[in-house]
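To illustrate the input format used throughout this study, we show a single complete record. The first block contains the structure-token representation of the backbone; no residue identities are included at this stage. The design step must infer an amino acid for every position from geometry alone.
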């Protein structure tokens, strides 16, 4: 053999050897189990058929931890993501990954399609087990559904042979099945359900056919379908005859035919033992949690950023990167601008916390399986406006509500967004850069406020410091988080003076108008007139767009409204607020910003810039302005009128001087509250009276939808005024509810309304129950406990009630001023207002009457009975406790149906005359 041939052979052998070494190295890396970095997995497949892929799962060598291999099946359209190594005894079993999340949870579709021979009875056994038993099916909320005729289904533990559950399914004639079973949850006709009662990582299903013959219409139902399903009051499989006759289940309703499975590292029994083997330990420096079932194992979690992957090295340590704002980043999603530090790609956002995804022209924030639609981002105020996402990734939150386990839902919800303060408003969140003071942040190389005219400001929850954010200095507008030159568009420019921005706009207009043929250049005076003409036309166009003509017609048609309601011009309100100067801002809420104004007639008013963007909302807004103008109640804030000449309609209300109940209760917790126990009872009664009036006595029933202590104002005499109808909805007399987009404030939000989207008067009752708790405890709806953790006041109160320890959380001032029976009475009333099912709560009128009774008892005890100046005698003041035949804890008894009606004042006076004196 020649020397050249020897050299070539040697080179080929060397090449083969190098390939083997590389393959072995990759295999050793995968087998080691130590967490890799994101950079090492950059070449790995990130998704398949719409399903995300995150380590420890992966497709291809070096992309997964041993036992977590997936395959992307391209034989179907769209491709399917399948879990390899699932132990079954049939090739008709499918374990399809619907989606997979960074925290390890897997949404999976597990199904068996069992072919049978018509007329021949048989027994069929099928088993399922994930590779290395890494996946666990949670108890109580997931079930095995079997679709078939004349079958008995046994769910068995393959290790112990213990029976985990049993069900039976039979079929009748087609007409009966259409009537009794079609479109309904499984009841034993056509399908049946076996619920898992404990965590399971493997199971065997044994199916025995018991009926040789079936109705001829379903004789061709020769395939038994068995699949894993969500089974809750919200999501469950609904039987269809089509599924019975087909060869496989229709997967279009993914939510009901799939389940969320927990991922565990199962090669070690617990964290303690696993940490002794750093080469195989999966969590690295991240948090380790032991499995909560007898199978053992552990899972990893990020200590802070739940949107990160705890199975990757360094992925939990997502620091702020102020230089990520690239010029080629997309800065819009639909009609919404996405300013830095937020972004639509990781390299365009300051860190993953600020990462949004744009789907169907809508922006969403969140990771894992919780996502919320973002409707607006305010850099100036550090606010994020969100709606609950209807995407499948978010549906598990609704499931938690349906399980009547609010505490778990609140804890997981808050943990998911731990750098957002969600406690003030549902749908409006405070955000901050990171948990640092301004002094410390300025010394950091990752300091976010890099704009020349930007400055740092602290973000707090009450008196607790949360972190810092940035804002433009006084007199400047723009983005304080960036440094840019003039070539950038206005929406992404750094902080600049307001006058500079206005000058730029005027110069642009002058340049446009001045570019005329030679000799036709416009003089400056004409340019100014043109500018004013353009402004006038814009305002006129807004007036028409905002249905100004319709409102004028509605007002003119109602004489009772015409003399009270005014349509203001924008000039009037600009003069009243000094051009909406920031020093005139009274506050900001989920539905807009409120300014203090002084009209030309010297009336002091509150002017609200509503947050309305959709034309359909404009139509509703106009109708409700006309409706709210008719409300005349001493405890409801008066609406003077509105302005429709701006892009966003403006509302003009009476100005209430003493602020909100929220501020008086929660402002300075170190000092004694100015509200005595007697005043707190009176405020509760007046607020209940206003809400009862809205529900029953108004010409059209009105549901407030955002009842909270921040919307209860107090005037100079501390008289209660219910305010902020930005979320309110009116219904016709014969309607009991209205389906809406969920709005409200987190901590006050009715879980049933949140769960169903059906708003009714009982939603306001629930929120009012939270206010009652605030009045006796002086705690916020979401408060910080002694160790700095956020807690839900409603859940905390109900637990205390159950344990008879409510007095331990009652405000010290209340304990000093009130008798125990008085506190118990308010606590009992709050408890029934907070019942999970709306039908079990009292109506607002019943709440008002019960507070009337309490006030009369307290007044009699203190000898403080008063007669109103209008000579309106309150009959209940004469109503002694011994004469009462009403059980105050039972508002659902048939004997008190009269109390559930809407009363007129005349009816109430007549009914009260029959009470014992």
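Output of the design step:
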């Amino acid at each position: 053999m020649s020397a050249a041939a020897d050299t070539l052979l040697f080179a080929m052998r060397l090449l083969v050897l190098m390939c083997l070494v590389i393959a072995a190295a990759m295999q050793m890396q995968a087998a080691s189990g130590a967490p890799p970095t994101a950079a090492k997995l950059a070449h790995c497949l990130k998704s398949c058929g719409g399903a995300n892929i995150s380590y420890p799962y992966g497709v291809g060598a070096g992309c997964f931890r041993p036992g977590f291999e997936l395959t992307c099946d391209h034989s179907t359209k769209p491709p399917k993501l399948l879990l390899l190594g699932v132990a079954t005894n049939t090739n008709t079993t499918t374990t399809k990954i619907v989606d997979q999340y960074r925290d390890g949870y897997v949404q999976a579709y597990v199904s068996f399609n069992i072919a049978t021979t018509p007329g021949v009875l048989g027994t069929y056994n099928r088993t399922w087990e994930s590779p290395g038993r890494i996946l666990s099916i949670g108890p109580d909320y997931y079930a095995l559904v079997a679709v078939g005729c004349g079958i008995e289904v046994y769910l068995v533990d393959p290790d112990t042979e213990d029976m985990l559950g049993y069900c039976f399914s039979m079929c009748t004639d087609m007409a009966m099945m259409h009537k009794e079973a079609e479109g309904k949850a499984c009841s034993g006709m056509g399908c049946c359900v076996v619920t898992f009662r404990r965590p399971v990582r493997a199971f065997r299903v044994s199916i025995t056919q018991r009926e040789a013959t079936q109705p001829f219409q379903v004789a061709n139902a020769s395939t038994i379908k068995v699949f894993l399903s969500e089974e809750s009051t919200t999501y469950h499989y609904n039987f269809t005859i089509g599924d019975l006759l087909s060869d496989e289940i229709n997967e279009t309703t993914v939510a009901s035919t799939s389940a969320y499975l927990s991922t565990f590292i199962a090669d070690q029994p617990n964290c303690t033992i696993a940490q002794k083997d750093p080469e195989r330990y999966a969590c690295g420096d991240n948090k380790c949690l032991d499995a909560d079932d007898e199978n053992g194992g552990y899972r990893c979690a990020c200590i802070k950023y739940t949107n990160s992957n705890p199975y990757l090295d360094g992925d939990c340590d997502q620091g702020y990167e102020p230089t990520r704002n690239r010029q080629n980043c997309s800065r819009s999603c639909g009609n919404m601008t996405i300013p830095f530090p937020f972004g639509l790609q990781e390299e365009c956002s300051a860190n993953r916390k600020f990462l949004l995804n744009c789907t169907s022209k809508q922006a969403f924030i969140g990771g894992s399986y919780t996502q919320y639609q973002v409707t607006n981002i305010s850099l100036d105020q550090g606010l994020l406006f969100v709606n609950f996402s209807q995407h499948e990734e978010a549906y598990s939150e609704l499931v938690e509500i349906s399980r009547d386990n609010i505490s778990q839902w609140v804890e997981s919800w808050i943990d998911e967004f731990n750098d957002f303060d969600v406690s003030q408003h549902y749908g409006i969140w405070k955000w901050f850069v990171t948990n640092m003071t301004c002094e410390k942040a300025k010394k950091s190389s990752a300091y976010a406020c890099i704009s020349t005219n930007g400055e740092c400001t602290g973000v707090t929850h009450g008196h607790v410091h949360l972190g810092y954010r940035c804002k433009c200095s006084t007199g400047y507008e723009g983005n304080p988080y960036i440094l840019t030159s003039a070539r950038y568009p206005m929406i992404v420019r750094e902080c600049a003076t307001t006058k500079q921005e206005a000058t730029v706009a005027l110069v642009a207009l002058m340049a446009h108008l001045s570019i005329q043929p030679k000799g036709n250049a416009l003089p400056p005076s004409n340019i100014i007139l043109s500018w004013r003409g353009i402004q006038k036309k814009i305002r006129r166009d807004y007036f028409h767009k905002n249905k100004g003509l319709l409102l004028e017609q509605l007002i003119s048609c109602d004489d009772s409204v015409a003399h009270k309601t005014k349509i203001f011009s924008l000039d009037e309100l600009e003069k009243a607020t000094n051009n909406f100067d920031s020093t005139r801002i009274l506050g900001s809420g989920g539905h807009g910003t409120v300014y203090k104004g002084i009209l030309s007639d010297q009336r002091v008013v509150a002017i609200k810039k509503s947050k309305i963007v959709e034309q359909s909302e404009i139509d509703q807004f106009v109708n409700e302005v006309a409706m709210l103008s008719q409300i005349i109640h001493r405890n409801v804030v008066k609406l003077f009128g509105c302005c429709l000449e701006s892009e966003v309609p403006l509302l003009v209300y009476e100005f209430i001087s003493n602020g909100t109940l929220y501020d008086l209760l929660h402002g300075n917790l170190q000092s004694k509250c100015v509200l005595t126990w007697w005043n707190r009872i009176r405020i509760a009664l007046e607020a209940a009276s206003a809400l009862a009036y809205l529900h029953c006595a108004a010409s059209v029933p009105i549901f407030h939808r955002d009842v909270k202590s921040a919307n209860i104002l107090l005037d100079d005499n501390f008289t209660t005024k219910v305010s902020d109808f930005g979320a309110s909805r009116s219904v016709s007399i014969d309607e009991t509810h209205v389906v809406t987009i969920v709005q409200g404030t987190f901590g006050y939000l009715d879980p049933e309304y949140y769960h169903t989207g059906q708003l009714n008067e009982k939603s306001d009752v629930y929120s009012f129950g939270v206010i009652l708790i605030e009045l006796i405890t002086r705690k916020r709806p979401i408060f910080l406990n002694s160790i700095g953790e956020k807690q839900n006041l409603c859940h905390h109160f109900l637990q205390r009630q159950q344990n008879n320890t409510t007095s331990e959380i009652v405000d010290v001032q209340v304990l000093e001023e009130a008798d125990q029976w008085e506190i118990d009475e308010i606590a009992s009333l709050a408890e029934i207002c907070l019942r999970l099912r709306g039908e079990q709560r009292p109506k607002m009128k019943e709440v008002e009457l019960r507070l009337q009774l309490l006030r009369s008892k307290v007044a009699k005890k203190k000898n403080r009975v008063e007669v109103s100046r209008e000579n309106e005698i309150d009959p209940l003041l004469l109503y002694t406790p011994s004469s009462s035949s009403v059980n105050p804890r039972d508002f659902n008894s048939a004997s008190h149906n009269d109390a559930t009606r809407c009363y007129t004042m005349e009816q109430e006076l007549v009914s009260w005359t029959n009470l014992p004196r």
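Structural context for interpreting the output: The chain has four domains: 111-244, 332-496, 543-654, 674-912. The longest strand covers residues 106-115.
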